[in-house]
Amino acid sequence: TSFSFTLYPLKPNTTYYFRAVATNDLGTGYGAQRSFTTLQVPYYESLISPQVQTNPATDITEHTARLNGVVVEDGGVMGAARFQWGLTTEYGNDTPWQQGYGKGDEFFVDLNNLAEGQGFHFRAQFRVAGKLVSGSDMVFNTLFPLGPVTLVTDEIIQLLEAV
């Protein structure tokens, strides 16, 4: 039976050694040691630069919002995504990095405990093999709280007019 395993991230111009190991009820067997050397310049640097896109926030309430982004180009290597957010374009808040994103992958983060009726700036970021790219700045506004709801009927209007 054949098998494979993908390794990432790997350092450029580095030799890696490996061998297969199989275990069953009769014991353990070891394959021959093999090696490979990664390229001097990673192909993702020589061909395509990574790119991330900030998408509009969704599911906005008085105190919550969902930030959305998509990896437009990964440069051929899986990477990590996150968001920066805050009251200004200085942001001041970073969400945790989410690993394992590649070209075309959408990602999101739900923010909670936000101030009501407030505007927030945010942008998506993507990090791959030492490169960090940012999407464009976007803004969302949390909702203002709704006051008490008053039901007005024709009967109430007639009573008020009679006064």
Automatic annotation (TrEMBL):
Domain Fibronectin type-III, residue spans: 1-42
Protein name: Fibronectin type-III domain-containing protein
Taxonomic source organism: marine sediment metagenome
